[in-house]
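TA notes, week 10

Several of you asked for a full example with nothing omitted. So below is the full record: structure tokens for the whole chain, then the designed sequence directly under it. When grading your own attempts, check the secondary structure regions first.
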């Protein structure tokens, strides 16, 4: 136990004061080594009549200071150095305060080393008391020797660490300022905002109100009730009917506006977003896209006003994304002129599962079932099936089960539906692509069942476009929070200096800035996807289906991974529920599997690359697909890429043409080699499906490579079309960081195939780090350009804007 504070000898005697800085620093790490104690005692125990060599081998003249200490003073020093009774925290804090008070009066030139500081403290005290207390040069030399014995250097670093000196207030204030961005922020905001800036801002203004906020710590039922009330507010503004035909009451004929609203809602509560998407996008959209005029007139006005809540009942427990093999049946009964809907028993796999709006609010469902007319099966069709009466009670033959607690999205009432001989009028068949006439005959303008099936699904591709856009908003939200926090939060630093901002650490830049560059890249790619979707005929959007599938897969994965990395980058603060990462992670996680499992969607991309869509929609014959490509594929592996493998100059690596060449080469190589693999397996007698399955991982790599190439192309196209020259430099840095980080992530492939030499791969890694460093001063402005207002961002760690920066900006985006 340490001696009581009152009995520990004071160190303010003029002969002891020089020791104060050295002793405090000696105990700074809480423990003195035997070697250090031996060195100090050797100097304290010196006697003029003793042998003239100290016990540690030092010369006796190193101990001249000890000649001026009497027995009591040496005992005082010894007491402070007793390893069995070290000074406690109270002692150290008290003497550190005294040291600082004395040091504050000294000019900075007198704070060079601990030994000099000790000597100058004595002199300054003498001046204050009207005396001339000093120590001789020989005594100062002995202090220096003592400093060396303690292993302390001769620079001012130890002094700064001991005193924890701060820079002058003016310098500290200047250091807290974020650097001004290298580009006009307003210009970048306008570029990202796109054509529907006013509508985006209208949505954001509503999101910032108390009515649109999700209640905190509410139970599941309360969350569901509140989500429905908030959905009614959106319906009252007419946003739900934006995508419906203009000739329908409440319809806006404005798919671009609908996508804009959906993307922007994703900055807020994702339960409300999903509820909005289920009601107006999936349920209402299925009626609009698969139904005809009489369906539109009868149902869509009520859907738009939320007077008719509905469901989109496609997925089944046993089949998930495999829509073609659904088990629910719809048999046409010619006598009653009705369709009879059944979930075959005893198979639980035929139960409709994860159906939004089913557990609580839905009254009508678009049910996808295998249609049989007479003795002929016609494949999957969509039928409108009432599931509840106006009082909310399940209708006869309809079994409804709540899916229960979920990882997230507790404001959405997901349920399960089972049908037991439920009868609906023949007119409830959504008959845009197939109908049953008054004589009970099946009719369709599309003769091929496969083409009819894929044409029907192709009309629903807007769901994947919407989910990809929403995922992009999630990534922007997470990065805005993390980059703002990282640009302000300090941790560690040089002794005596302000702690370093997190975002000034290269490792922190590496965590966030490549993800920021990727988010920008996906923004431009998704904008192009949305435009292609809008420009395609409503009844033939097959041309964008594979692109929507691929971007949905990559954008949702990017969003989920980005939320996690941003949470970790914010440390414990990121773990607090108030800072939203937990909710974002839980709610956005499902994006990777709804509207199509990402792995399945990437396979769709690769199939699209192996054949044109016309063949695919006519007949999913894998043998035919392989033969088609084999006719146009080269016989050997793609020749060595035309770009050199060894050039390492920054100008070359940052060249947009070089980056595109690399990604195009990888895609073409994967395409040609997988075609050869498939062809060879077929020639050896394997079934086409088995051959395709054996090459699945190769096909997934091809799909990712294709979407990454497309994304880079759209980033470059956006730069080429810039109207504001000052934006070119930061966007080119972001483009290069996206491209090089994608190449870096697949360096193993490039090295394995001889496309990059080792020096070039190392140079790419260095360029990624250099680009992160160059983008660091612009990082705050680059996330502010997303334009998420503080009251929508709603994360306390992100709500203290940098001096001079506005806290709210019009929203930027990627949609049309």
């Amino acid at each position: 136990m340490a001696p009581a504070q009152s009995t520990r000898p004071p160190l303010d005697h003029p002969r002891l004061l020089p020791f104060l800085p050295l002793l405090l620093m000696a105990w700074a790490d809480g423990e003195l080594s035997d070697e250090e104690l031996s060195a100090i005692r050797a100097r304290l125990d010196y006697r003029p009549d003793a042998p003239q060599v100290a016990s540690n081998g030092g010369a006796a003249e190193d101990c001249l200071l000890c000649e001026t200490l009497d027995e009591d003073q040496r005992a005082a020093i010894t007491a402070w150095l007793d390893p069995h009774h070290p000074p406690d925290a109270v002692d150290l804090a008290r003497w550190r305060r005294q040291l600082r008070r004395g040091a504050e009066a000294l000019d900075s030139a007198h704070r060079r080393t601990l030994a000099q500081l000790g000597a100058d403290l004595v002199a300054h005290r003498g001046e204050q008391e009207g005396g001339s207390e000093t120590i001789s040069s020989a005594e100062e030399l002995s202090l220096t020797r003592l400093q060396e014995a303690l292993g302390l250097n001769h620079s001012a670093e130890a002094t700064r660490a001991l005193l924890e000196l701060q820079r002058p207030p003016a310098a500290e204030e200047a250091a807290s300022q974020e650097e001004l961005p290298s580009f006009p922020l307003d210009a970048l905001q306008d570029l990202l905002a796109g054509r529907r800036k006013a509508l985006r801002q209208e949505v954001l203004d509503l999101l910032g109100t108390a009515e649109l906020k999700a209640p905190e710590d509410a139970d599941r039922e309360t969350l569901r009730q509140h989500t429905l009330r908030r959905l009614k507010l959106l319906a009252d503004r007419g946003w739900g009917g934006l995508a419906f035909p203009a000739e329908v009451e409440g319809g806006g004929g404005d798919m671009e506006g609908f996508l804009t609203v959906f993307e922007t809602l994703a900055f807020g509560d994702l339960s409300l977003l999903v509820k909005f998407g289920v009601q107006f996008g999936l349920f209402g959209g299925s009626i609009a896209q698969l139904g005809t005029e009489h369906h539109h007139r009868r149902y869509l006005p009520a859907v738009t006003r939320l007077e008719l809540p509905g469901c989109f009942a496609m997925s089944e427990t046993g089949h998930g994304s495999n829509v073609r093999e659904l088990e629910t049946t719809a048999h046409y009964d010619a006598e009653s002129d009705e369709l009879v809907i059944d979930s075959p028993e005893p198979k639980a796999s035929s139960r409709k599962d994860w159906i939004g709006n089913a557990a609580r609010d839905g009254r009508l469902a678009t049910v996808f079932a295998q249609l049989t007319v007479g003795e002929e099966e016609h494949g999957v069709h969509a039928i409108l099936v009432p599931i509840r009466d106006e009082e909310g009670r399940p209708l006869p033959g309809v079994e409804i089960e709540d899916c229960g607690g979920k990882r997230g999205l507790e404001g959405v009432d997901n349920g399960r539906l089972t049908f037991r001989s439920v009868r609906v009028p023949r007119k409830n068949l959504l008959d845009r692509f197939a109908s049953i006439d008054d004589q009970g005959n099946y009719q369709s303008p599309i003769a091929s069942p496969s083409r009819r099936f894929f044409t029907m699904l192709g009309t629903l591709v807007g769901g994947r476009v919407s989910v990809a856009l929403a995922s992009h908003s999630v990534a922007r939200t997470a990065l805005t929070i993390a980059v703002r926090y990282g640009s302000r939060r300090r941790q560690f630093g040089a002794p005596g200096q302000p702690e370093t901002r997190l975002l000034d650490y290269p490792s922190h830049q590496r965590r966030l800035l490549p993800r920021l560059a990727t988010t920008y890249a996906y923004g431009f790619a998704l904008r192009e996807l949305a435009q292609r979707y809008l420009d395609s005929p409503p009844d033939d959007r097959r041309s964008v289906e594979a692109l929507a599938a691929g971007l949905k897969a990559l954008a949702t994965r990017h969003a989920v991974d980005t939320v996690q990395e941003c949470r970790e980058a914010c440390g414990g603060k990121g773990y607090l529920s108030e800072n939203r990462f937990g909710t974002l992670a839980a709610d956005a996680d499902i994006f990777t599997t709804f509207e199509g499992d990402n792995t399945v969607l990437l396979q769709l991309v690769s199939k699209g690359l192996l054949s044109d869509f016309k063949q695919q929609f006519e007949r999913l014959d894998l043998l035919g697909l392989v033969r088609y490509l084999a006719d146009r594929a080269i016989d050997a592996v793609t020749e060595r890429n035309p770009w050199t493998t060894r050039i390492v100059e920054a100008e070359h690596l940052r060249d947009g043409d070089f980056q595109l060449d690399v990604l195009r080469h990888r895609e073409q190589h994967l395409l040609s080699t997988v075609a050869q693999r498939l062809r060879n397996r077929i020639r050896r007698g394997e079934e086409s499906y088995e051959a395709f399955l054996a090459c699945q991982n190769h096909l997934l790599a091809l799909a990712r490579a294709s979407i990454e190439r497309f994304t880079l192309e759209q980033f470059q196209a956006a730069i080429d079309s810039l109207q504001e020259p000052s934006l070119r430099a930061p966007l080119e840095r972001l483009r290069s960081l996206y491209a090089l980080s994608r190449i870096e992530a697949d360096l193993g492939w490039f090295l394995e195939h001889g496309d990059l030499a080792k020096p070039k791969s190392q140079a790419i890694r260095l360029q990624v780090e250099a680009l992160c460093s160059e983008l660091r001063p612009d990082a705050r402005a680059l996330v502010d350009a997303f334009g998420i207002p503080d009251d929508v961002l709603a994360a306390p760690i992100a709500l203290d804007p940098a001096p001079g920066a506005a806290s709210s900006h019009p929203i930027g985006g990627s949609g049309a």
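The first strand starts at residue 310 and ends at 313. Use that as a sanity check on your answer.
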